[in-house]
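Fresh eyes needed here. Kindly weigh in on this sequence plus structure tokens:
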Amino acid sequence: MSSLQASQSVTSPADRGESGGSPVQVQATAPLRIILADDHALFRGGLILLIKLMDQPVEILEANDLDQATGYLVEGPPIDLLLLDLLMPGMSGIEDVRRICRNWPDVPVVVVSVKEDAQAIREALQAGAMGYIPKTSSPETTTNALRFILSGGVYVPPHILHLSDTSPDLPRERERGNWPKEVGVEKGAGPLGLTARQVEVLRLMAEGKSNKDIAADLDISPGTVKMHVSRVFKVLKVENRTQAASKLAELNAALAGEDFD
């Protein structure tokens, strides 16, 4: 998973040298800001322990209901991930997921729920969620799913992905275009902290292609492209496509001689 870095720097006495000269600047790592919105304190506590095992500095904001969760979004600073229980106080279901995704499009929303049927998962993803994690998931599955989502992917539970071709749900929904085509479990980030898909998006951006064109070239949805572009900007610490394209030479040098697929 890619690491986010702050603009400030820190120093230690050992960095200053014997003569007390100019300090050596060391880049500090900014914590991920994650909202954990669930009205069950015991569940929140267990999920917090899992998140802290992800080897990434993290600031977790706990919310007992929808109002408290959206309050964090309104107040800022920016949130890197929102973990949202469908059944907590204040939630009216998928409509609230859709509203949050519409009002805060740069915040990856992940539904964490006791419901794990195909229809519930489909509706959450159609509403804009970047993942759906059943509460019955194992600790390893949960952390892998979170890493994958933070890298810009869309996570769907394995038991849904592995439905047979005779399933009454999955094949029909894929034909209708209701399921994201880019799903799975995180396989790790490559050079500069970008995933293979994000490298493809960066290269197409450098060619001057729009999100719509990139979506067509990669056979993914424009919404997924938008999420990848946002993550590329954050990982590379740039503000626009021109700056991102200028990083391509550095990326190409890092990729030289490597097998990154």
